[in-house]
Design brief:
- The chain is of the alpha/beta class.
- It has two domains: 134 residues, HUPs (Rossmann fold), CATH 3.40.50; 180 residues, Alpha-Beta Complex (Argininosuccinate synthetase, chain A, domain 2), CATH 3.90.1260.10.
- A hairpin with a 2-residue loop joins strand 8 and strand 9.
- The longest helix is centred in the C-terminal third of the chain and has 19 residues.
């Protein structure tokens, strides 16, 4: 790739991206601009500034994107009840379009010629970053070092650091051996013993949740308030989107909620085993389906359920900025205008149980469903004709077969 004078790098300050920053300077003889996003990963993002400065980087961007992340990405996704392959709550996937968006914006602001990321050539994130970047900036140039260099092991990366005077943590020590990714929605674990799908994860691996068997013996009750499909308060206390999700993570984690051990199908074609902790998201999904059960028309709810796997795959595969995702989002958001009310939940030893739901927009009619005297609101005799009409094609087929 020629004509590269300045590159914006998605920079965490860790081993991989620290090596990439130096490698870009050396390989492309270019200026490197770093961008570090705080999306609730729980690490001191300002440490990335010191590491970047030590490598002579002049333009350093560190941004708190937590509220935007939850408001504009997490919440819209949960309005759809999105689950990839029935289990994965898409914690990593939903963060990538926001990072891609800011990468290309900063590239334009700084006059950069290209963007770069630290995603490997085997995973999904390279696809997510780059599809997002191309959708928002069609002519952007992307440098993906893992697809170009020969630094294909930790030992080679550390040797490169020694050679070029890059200060990184070189000893694993008490550091987790897993490849991890965290944000306000979840933390993920891959690699090491998890690469054998038959092995149970070590108990010490989990960082956000207590083991369900070690959770408190007394259940915790919470009440969530909904407005147009989004949670706005916990137990009557209004909170911002990011503050609310952080609170749900804390409550859920303390009660052993949100662990998942999954073998998933990556977009690049291979199967991969990952473990996830999504305590707040697990609560959100359960509660959202509960408030929708009161407030959504049957056919609209069923339509959403039919579309959800496609919507989830679009996010997983990196198509957040695609016209089809945007169109689906319009339908989903329109369905949420009456999704208002309150849901009461019981949290106990890894389980989330709905124990109550109420809404002024409820479609539930107690007079119609009651087993007591219904005072003529529903004539049970009408069901006979309804059944016969729906059975007509079945009866005709059976008669044709001579039954």
């Amino acid at each position: 790739m020629t004509g590269i004078r300045k590159v914006v790098l998605a920079y965490s300050g860790g081993l991989d991206t620290s090596v990439i920053a130096k490698w870009l300077q050396q390989t492309y003889d270019c200026e490197v601009v770093t961008f570090t996003a705080d999306i609730g990963q729980g690490e001191e993002v300002e440490l990335a500034r010191a590491k970047a400065e030590a490598m002579g980087i002049k333009e350093i961007h560190i941004e708190d994107l937590r509220e935007e992340f939850v408001r504009d990405f997490v919440n819209p996704m949960f309005r759809a009840n999105a689950l990839y392959e029935g289990e994965y709550l898409l914690g990593t996937a939903i963060a990538r379009p926001l990072i891609a968006k800011r990468l290309v914006e900063i590239a334009k602001e700084t006059g950069a010629d290209a963007i770069s990321h630290g995603a490997t050539g085997k995973g999904n994130d390279q696809v997510r970053f780059e599809l997002g970047a191309y959708a928002l900036s069609p002519s952007v140039k992307v440098i993906a070092p893992w697809r170009e260099w020969d630094l294909t092991s930790r030992d080679r990366l550390l040797a490169y650091c020694d050679e070029h005077g890059i200060s990184v943590e070189k000893k694993i020590g008490n550091k987790s051996p897993y490849s991890m990714d965290a944000n306000l929605l979840h933390i993920s674990y891959e690699g090491d013993i998890l690469e054998d799908p038959a092995r149970e994860p070590e108990a010490s691996m989990w960082l956000w949740t207590v083991a369900p068997e070690a959770a408190p013996d007394t259940p915790v009750y919470i009440e969530l308030t909904y407005a147009k499909g989004d949670i706005t308060a916990i137990d009557g206390e209004a909170m911002s989107p990011a503050t609310l999700l952080a609170a749900l993570n804390k409550i859920g984690g303390a009660n052993g909620i949100g662990r998942a051990d999954i073998v998933e199908n990556r977009y690049v074609g291979m199967k991969a085993r990952g473990c996830y902790e999504t305590p707040g998201g697990t609560i959100m999904l359960k509660a959202h389906r509960a408030i929708e059960s009161l407030t959504l028309d049957r056919e609209l709810a069923h339509l959403k359920d039919e579309l959800m796997p496609r919507y989830a795959s679009l996010i997983y595969n990196g198509y957040w900025w695609s016209p089809e995702r945007v169109a689906l989002q319009g339908l989903i958001d329109a369905s949420q205008t009456q999704v208002n009310g309150k849901v009461r939940l019981k949290l106990y030893k890894g389980n989330v149980t709905v124990v109550g739901r109420e809404s002024e927009d409820s479609l539930y009619d107690e007079k119609t469903v009651t087993f007591e005297d219904d005072a003529g609101s529903y004539d049970q005799a009408d069901a006979g004709g309804f059944i016969k009409l729906n059975a007509l094609r079945l009866r005709i087929a059976a008669l044709k077969r001579g039954k």
